[in-house]
Design brief:
There is one protein chain. The chain is mainly alpha-helical. Helices cover about 70% and strands about 0% of the residues. It has one domain. It contains four helices and no strands.
Length: about 80
């Protein structure tokens, strides 16, 4: 689930270098921060990550955009548990 980075390092580098993928880098930051939080603060960061990943999926033309689906599904699973 959210116990590790959802992106392999090569994917993370590609996403960070892609100006269309700023929302995924931002989402990854929220996922990392969520690991240090509990309760409502954790949920807020997971929600933010999910929303940013959803925005990226619906607006990006990057052919590799589906690579963020596992991270988005992990966010959904985390939200279902809270």
């Amino acid at each position: 689930m959210l116990g590790h980075s959802p992106f392999p390092s090569a994917d993370a580098e590609r996403l960070l270098l892609n100006p269309n993928a700023v929302s995924t880098a931002h989402a990854n930051c929220h996922i990392i921060i969520a690991h240090t939080k509990q309760g409502a603060a954790r949920k807020a960061h997971v929600l933010a990550a999910r929303d940013l990943l959803g925005e990226y999926l619906t607006t990006s033309t990057d052919p590799g955009r589906l690579s963020v689906m596992p991270a988005m599904l992990s966010c959904e699973a985390e939200l279902a548990r809270t």
